[in-house]
Amino acid sequence: MVNGYAGNDELQLHQNYTNNKQRWGNKATSVNWNRMISSRAFINSSFNYSSYDNLAGFRYNLYDSTGRLVQNRVYNTYSSISQYNVRSALEITASNNYRINVGGKASFTRIRPFDSNVGAAFIDRPGDFNAFPPLSFNEMVLFAEHEIRPTKRLYIRPGLHVSFYTHNDFHYTSWQPRLYAVYKFDQHHQLDVSYNNMTQYLHLVTNPYIGINSDAWVPSTGELQPETSDMINLGYTFRNRKKIIIHADVYYKQMRNVTNYAEGKNLFLNTSNWGQNVQLGKGWCYGLETKAERVTDKWYLHLSYTLSWNWRRFAALNNGAKFPFKYDRRHELNAAATYKYNAHWSFSSFWMFATGDVYSLPNQVYPDFDDAQQISDPLAPKEYRLIYHSSVARMYRTLPYHRLDVSASNYHSLGKNLNSRLTAGIYNIYGSPSQYVYDLEGTLGKRSLVVTTKYQFFQVTPYVSYTVSF
């Protein structure tokens, strides 16, 4: 089996004296090979490659209090990550009540986390950026998992995941146990529980300010230890003969060595000691997830609700007090319905509501007297190189987000084993006014900054797609 995917997006924003350009894309390909050894054993092997790149530019015009243009500059940044994976797994079904899965994986990852260029124009070619030395690491993984059915009502799946990590002179070994168990009281009621210990070597350094794809990926080092977590879930499921399914799940997850930008540091500064711009802390999240589904010959109905909390704590940020993470959303509600009119036509709708994202705004702005940002721009007077400081982390929330999508699909046979599907729909049909990006604007001479810029994307967006399957 061979798979391939490539996609690119481009976004441009224009607001008063500023404009932004964002272009990002993903590419992925994989080759999978399955071989039956016997009626009770087979091997599944694969090779895959994936890459992601993100190119962004921000143009600003800075005016003094008299309206005179004093600076016109474009800040361009580029980041990318590519990964190669080879994986093989053996599955043996010893009996109807016992199954074994064992295997291994080797991967190589290469990152360009933050290349930058300051000039008079937007840059479209990655080769034109100031090259930051790529960050690379290797990982080897061995895993084993057993599926055991001691009785007709009990199912147990214990497992162990062992990984070996190398980045330059830094080496790390991680033992990660996992457990999943299900107990069926009868045909209608089921209880499940799971525990997972995980280690992640790739750190996501999240920009605390609102923006598009402004985060960076960096590898674990002796200074930035791998991120580890422990998570436990407890769930309940109800099914009846009328094809109604109700599920509720509570979870708690604790994380260690989560990352954040060190306060006052440049986000995309090209230096070899980039690790000093990142700080480590703790995180935890917990909540309740519920959903209900109903399936009939004509209808599929879905309703789900999530109540959740997501916290972070860093010793050098917010006076050591905990604060909600950037993607903390207290409430999320989803409702979906699909109606199958006949063998050729179906109609769908989807509505969602979510609490707004958390973000920060500076409460102090002062000149960059000691050139801490190291912005080399001879055309910009030093008094217009500014540092933005936030003394309280993530102080605000965006407005709640909600939208309604509708679509219609037509199915048609083009011949033997050849079928097509034409789908047309409207995204955000009522033009939800929710804002996505907030920004600051003002004048230095008046020493004032106000939140006036609110970008809104994808208001009423029609779309069409056509699929052929054979």
Which helices and strands occur, and which strands form pairs?
Blueprint (H helix, E strand, L loop, with lengths): L1 E14 L2 E21 L2 E23 L5 E27 L2 E22 L15 E14 L5 E14 L2 E15 L4 E12 L1 E4 L10 E4 L7 E13 L4 E18 L16 E18 L3 E15 L9 E2 L6 E10 L4 E10 L3 E2 L4 E4 L18 E4 L6 E2 L3 E15 L2 E10 L9 E7 L4 E8 L5 E9 L1
3D structure, described in words:
The structure is a single chain. This protein is mostly beta strands. The protein has one domain. The protein has strands at 2-15, 18-38, 41-63, 69-95, 98-119, 135-148, 154-167, 170-184, 189-200, 202-205, 216-219, 227-239, 244-261, 278-295, 299-313, 323-324, 331-340, 345-354, 358-359, 364-367, 386-389, 396-397, 401-415, 418-427, 437-443, 448-455, 461-469. Residues 378-384 have low confidence and may be disordered.
